[in-house]
């Protein structure tokens, strides 16, 4: 979002095939819920392509980056590092402190995939848990971002979108951007829904 | 949670193999973030097993149900039906109304998998979007539940757990339940992390 400082989500580890869908959902969630950029392992090219495709169609700005030096990237981060893990401190207890740190500089949010090396727990400025229960890295990221931005991310405007979903009480409506009051995109729109958006 | 009325999450549609992990994450997210029960299609037995296993180890109460009559189940629901979809009304605009309805009776939250039939949009009391962007049904469910319960779900106590994660600033600590101050469970605990909990 156009916050004072950037918010970057890093997906730590990726097993091609098995993790494709989860990594894609991490990236799409980062985009939809207010991050400026997602950094994926360089073997997650397929997920990167999907996220870029959605950004091309539904708007940005949102950057997708593939890197082979994830550990060096987190180690060299000039700002605050949050590591989301079920072993960390409750999000409701530390979110204020994280927000205060983010007001002073950029924030890197690390979402584990394969096992995160133990010393990473010491390197992170905050180890944050969205409940201390096992559930989903996508769910944890979503709740964390919604709380970090205190809901402002839900009001974000998108630039350079080809299409836009018009919220409706019932039914599906997608308009081509530029149309003041376009026709119902219905099945012609991004019919997949992706279960997504919610 | 021990709210006045039950909260049930229904996963609509499931493709064995391809959807296993997403369906499992929907169920684990429902459990961790305050629902009382998840209803899965009857071909999602593997996901049901995983969710039950987590409940056995980390506590409940939380019920997992497999049904082959999902459409009849939603149609016969005696209470409010929320359908999460990127085409719906913004969660921030309707969450108060949904909460008010839930104060009067049970709530069914439907999470799409395969394409949800169009007439379901008309059947639902609320079509709710967590942003009108394509992202992840798991992310949408997580933000919806956190807002529905206004964060109270994060303080939930778990019954009949074999083990409990102790929140820590750094590191991993899992204690066997009953131990007043158990030893570090470390790798001996549920080391998988599942990227989970956050």
From TrEMBL, chains A, B:
Q: Where in the cell is it found?
A: Cytoplasm
Bias type Gly residues, positions: 183-198
Q: Which UniProt keywords apply?
A: Cytoplasm, Methyltransferase, S-adenosyl-L-methionine, Transferase, tRNA processing
Pfam families annotated for this entry?
Answer: Trm56 (PF01994)
Q: What class of enzyme is it?
A: transferase
User: What does the record give as the reaction this protein catalyses?
Assistant: cytidine(56) in tRNA + S-adenosyl-L-methionine = 2'-O-methylcytidine(56) in tRNA + S-adenosyl-L-homocysteine + H(+)
What domain of life does the native source organism fall in?
Archaea
Q: Name one GO molecular function term.
A: tRNA (cytidine(56)-2'-O)-methyltransferase activity
Where are the residues of the annotated region Disordered? 169-198
Q: What is its EC number?
A: 2.1.1.206
Transmembrane stretches, by residue range?
A: none
User: What broad class describes the main subcellular location of this protein?
Assistant: cytoplasm
Sequence positions that bind S-adenosyl-L-methionine: 84, 112-116
Its biological function? Specifically catalyzes the AdoMet-dependent 2'-O-ribose methylation of cytidine at position 56 in tRNAs.
Q: Which PANTHER family match?
A: TRNA (CYTIDINE(56)-2'-O)-METHYLTRANSFERASE
**What family is it from?**
Belongs to the aTrm56 family.
Q: How does it assemble?
A: Homodimer.
Q: What is this protein called?
A: tRNA (cytidine(56)-2'-O)-methyltransferase
Q: Which organism is it from?
A: Halorarum salinum
**What taxonomic lineage is listed for the species of origin?**
Archaea, Methanobacteriati, Methanobacteriota, Stenosarchaea group, Halobacteria
């Amino acid at each position: 979002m156009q916050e004072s400082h950037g918010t970057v989500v890093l997906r730590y580890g990726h097993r091609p095939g098995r993790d494709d869908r989860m990594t894609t959902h991490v990236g799409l969630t980062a985009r939809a819920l207010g991050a400026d950029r997602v950094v994926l392992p360089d073997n997650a090219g397929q997920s990167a392509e999907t996220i870029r495709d959605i950004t091309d169609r539904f708007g940005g700005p949102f950057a997708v980056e593939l890197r082979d030096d994830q550990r060096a990237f987190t180690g060299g981060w000039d700002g605050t590092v949050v590591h989301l893990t079920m072993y960390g401190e409750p999000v409701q207890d530390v979110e204020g402190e994280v927000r205060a740190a983010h007001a002073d500089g950029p924030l890197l949010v690390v979402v584990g995939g394969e096992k995160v090396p133990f010393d990473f727990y010491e390197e992170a400025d905050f180890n944050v848990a969205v409940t201390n229960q096992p559930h989903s890295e996508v769910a944890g990221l979503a709740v964390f971002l919604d709380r970090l931005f205190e809901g402002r991310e839900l009001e974000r405007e998108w630039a350079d979108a080809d299409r836009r979903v018009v919220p409706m009480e019932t039914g599906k409506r997608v308009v081509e951007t530029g149309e003041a009051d376009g026709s119902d995109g219905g099945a012609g729109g991004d019919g997949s829904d992706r279960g997504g958006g919610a």
